[in-house]
Design a protein that fits this description.
mainly alpha, globular
């Protein structure tokens, strides 16, 4: 749950880098919360709880995705590839699962703390 809260603290921070663990733990916890809200919505016969949650985490999700792309040395604009049907989702998953660049890159220092190798 700590990873989820840490991402929320960086609500709209698009600069810097995010480790794989930060991205995937945020995604996992957000998905579990969403599923719980879907069940609650079904019990209440409404979609309001999940819609409010999706609206609330849209910007933090976008921000952590951009920071994750920065960690692998890609521009945050690559997040738009997810809009391409089928292929976009596959490419996005591959990017998010790729190990980050060691050492500092153009987007900031290595979040794992590795020194730049020269």
């Amino acid at each position: 749950m700590n990873w989820f809260v840490e991402v929320l603290k960086k609500y709209v921070v698009f600069s810097g880098r995010a480790r794989r663990q930060e991205y995937w733990m945020f995604t996992l916890i957000a998905s579990l919360i969403y599923l719980g809200l879907v069940v609650l919505g079904l019990a209440m016969d409404t979609e309001v709880p999940e819609l409010v949650f999706v609206a609330a985490i849209f910007l933090p999700s976008l921000a952590v995705s951009v920071r994750r792309l920065h960690d692998i040395g890609r521009s945050g604009w690559w997040v738009l590839i997810g809009l391409v049907p089928c292929v976009g989702s596959i490419v996005t998953i591959i990017f998010m699962a790729t190990e980050g660049q060691r050492g500092e890159n153009q987007y900031g220092p290595d979040p794992k703390g590795y020194a730049a190798s020269h």
